[in-house]
Specification:
about 170 residues; transmembrane helix; membrane; 2 domains; transmembrane
Length: about 170
Amino acid sequence: MSKANQSIFERFSNWATKFTGSSYAFIGATVIVVLWAVTGPVFKYSETWQLVINTGTTIITFLMVFLIQKAQNKDSKAIQIKLNELIAANEKASNRIVDIEDLTEKELDQLHCYYEKLADFAEEDTDIHSSHSIDAAQRNQDHKDRIFRKKHEEWLKEQEQKKESR
């Protein structure tokens, strides 16, 4: 996005985020605190002297909370878009994962449990190049289940034949 398309607040927010995260901002804040501390004897450590630093830091903290949250929201959205692009571009990845950030906490917990099971499947798999998407894991699990059921049915038939032959 070009700078011409950004609002004044967007440009200010980007600048403020970069500046407040810089070493210059830290040095500036440190200098202010040191100057405040040095002026203590001049103002006889009065309540007004204490109120100046308390009020200043409270206002700055209050404003920084909103600035940090805006920057975090923007970064989070950008990361989600990048992850969605990677999911969409990978033929072995499940597209069902795109936009899961809108799920409830309970739904995300359920999905997390599912991925823990997926990790268990991956640990058992000897081929590190095989797909480990939800869909591929489900197909693998279904295939293993069909084989198990088939072998179990064969075993049951053998047991039945042994009973009949006695």
